[in-house]
């Protein structure tokens, strides 16, 4: 077993510059997150005889003249018996316990509940998955699973868009391994049926499509090439504008980016950092556990079977796993016990190129008596406030006072705008305490840009960044 240590924001920046299931605050307005993996196109059910598990739950809404259309989504750890995914096994009740009438659709490894009438705003609901659901092998879910979610207010939905928050490899990356896979993280839960080989593509310089498989979770899609890429070659990746959110809204435009391979065949996936760190004490009882990886991972392999937390009796605790960027987050269903030792296990995951982890990781931490309460703050930025002659093609880096919920880090919560308020296109990548914004194209010369961190940013305990924080810099003038 290996144990990895969590790096501070400043240490991470020096290197970088070379989310209870459905409960708690929404990761993005209109989206409640809970657990994660498997996806559209899952390749076959389990052959181990183990019971299937729920690996992601999500709730997405769109506003329509002050009312809501919404869907509840459930991802399973393997292919399920479609006949068992129905209105009797996926249930939703309002705050008074009244059953919400609706229909259920099964796609890939995903069950989608659509109510007959729209959910009420600012209201509490409970979703339930019963043991009536079963895998293709006929093995039923081990126990009923319940989680709560709260619909957002109309003001929370203002400006909600369907967009890509980050992609890996990053735009204009060089020396990318030949066996690399691609990950795209969205700003909200997407419709699984819209994420496929037709809408997530990779092409050679000659325009020839690269064959591959597409996997999808509630936030992240993975493209796994079936062939090794050519050395020293620029490739073009694209997410089509036809992809849709779970609420049925399409992106405004295609999301395109390029990267260039090197000559190395590829690296073995490894866990770089973790939080809480090994041996930490006094950990807040409402803490989540986060693991950061050295490369994009196959979303289908990141779940509660490969990322688990056990109590001091060795019993796994109930929780869910979300994956965004290159980070996985385990969120317990309920608060941890005070003054208790918990052990984390990470093993069996695959990189986005299909390469398996060679090492298992295990570490322990001890809780304190209280829940966390401090909001994250910005402790460092590059460019610095009021910096001038800033490179037009450089990254923008921000270090925070603590680890963040990666599902809240996106181009919606980290924005870069020119003097006229036009947003600079780009992507964000996150690890530990640091966020890196990479422009999709060079910034305008001699222009004042404003970087804004919004209150949508949250830490692992769900504490929101207090207010909006912004600063300015000026790009170098070519004249």
Report on the structure:
By secondary structure, the protein is mainly β. It folds into 2 domains: 19-374, no CATH class; 378-475, Sandwich (Immunoglobulin-like), CATH 2.60.40.1220. Helix content is 2%, strand content 37%. The protein has a 5-stranded antiparallel sheet with strand order 1-2-3-6-5, with no helix packed on it. A hairpin with a 3-residue loop joins strand 13 and strand 14. The longest helix is centred in the first third of the chain and has 8 residues, at 9-16.
In short:
This protein has 479 residues and is mostly beta strands.
Biggest beta-sheet profile: 5 strands, antiparallel
Please give the count of helices: 1
Question: Mind telling me the C-alpha Rg?
Answer: 21 Å
User: Which stretches are low in confidence, meaning pLDDT under 50 for 5 or more residues running?
Assistant: 3-47
Counted beta strands: 31
Structural class call reads mainly beta
Mean pLDDT: 81
Net shape: globular
User: In the residues, how many domains can be counted?
Assistant: 2
Terminus-to-terminus distance: 57 Å
Strand content: 35-45%
Helicity range: under 10%
Identify the strand order in the major beta sheet: 1-2-3-6-5
């Amino acid at each position: 077993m290996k144990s990895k240590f969590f790096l501070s924001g400043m240490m991470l920046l020096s290197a970088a510059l070379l989310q209870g299931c459905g409960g708690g605050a929404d990761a993005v307005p209109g989206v409640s997150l809970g657990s994660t993996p498997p996806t559209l196109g899952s390749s076959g059910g389990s052959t181990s005889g183990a019971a299937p598990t729920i690996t992601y739950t999500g709730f997405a809404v769109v506003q329509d003249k002050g009312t809501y259309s919404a869907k509840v989504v459930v991802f399973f750890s393997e292919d399920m018996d479609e006949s068992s995914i129905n209105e009797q096994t996926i249930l939703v009740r309002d705050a008074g316990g009244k059953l919400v009438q609706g229909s259920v659709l099964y796609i890939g490894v995903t069950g989608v509940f659509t109510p007959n009438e729209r959910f009420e705003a600012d209201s509490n609901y409970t979703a339930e998955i019963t043991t009536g659901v079963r895998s293709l092998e006929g093995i039923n879910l081990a126990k009923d699973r319940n989680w709560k979610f709260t619909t957002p207010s109309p003001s929370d939905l203002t400006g909600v868009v369907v967009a890509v928050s980050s992609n890996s490899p990053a735009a204009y990356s060089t020396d990318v391994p030949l066996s690399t896979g691609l990950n795209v993280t969205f700003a909200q839960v997407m419709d699984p049926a819209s994420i496929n080989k037709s809408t997530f593509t990779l092409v050679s310089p000659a325009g020839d499509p690269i064959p591959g498989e597409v996997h999808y979770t509630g936030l992240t899609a993975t493209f796994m090439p079936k062939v090794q890429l050519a050395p020293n070659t620029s490739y073009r990746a694209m997410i089509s504008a036809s992809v849709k959110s779970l609420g049925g809204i399409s992106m405004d435009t295609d999301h395109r980016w390029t990267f260039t391979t090197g000559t190395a065949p590829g690296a073995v996936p490894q866990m770089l950092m973790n939080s809480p760190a090994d041996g930490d004490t006094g950990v807040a009882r409402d803490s989540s556990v986060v693991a950061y990886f050295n490369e994009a991972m196959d979303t289908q392999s990141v779940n509660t079977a490969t990322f688990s937390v056990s109590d001091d009796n060795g019993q796994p605790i109930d929780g869910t796993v979300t994956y965004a960027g290159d980070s996985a987050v385990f969120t317990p269903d309920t608060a941890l016990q005070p003054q208790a030792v918990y052990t984390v296990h990470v093993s069996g995951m695959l990189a986005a190129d299909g390469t398996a982890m060679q090492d298992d990781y295990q570490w322990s931490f001890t809780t304190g008596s209280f829940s966390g309460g401090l909001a994250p703050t910005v402790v460092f930025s590059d460019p610095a406030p009021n910096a001038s002659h800033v490179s037009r093609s450089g990254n923008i880096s921000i270090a925070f006072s603590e680890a963040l919920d990666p599902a809240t880090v996106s181009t919606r919560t980290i924005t870069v705008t020119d003097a006229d308020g036009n947003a600079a296109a780009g992507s964000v990548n996150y690890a530990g305490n640091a966020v890196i914004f990479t422009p999709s194209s060079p910034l305008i010369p001699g222009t004042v840009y404003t970087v804004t961190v919004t209150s949508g940013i949250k830490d692992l305990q769900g504490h929101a960044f207090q207010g909006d924080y912004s600063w300015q810099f000026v790009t170098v003038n070519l004249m």
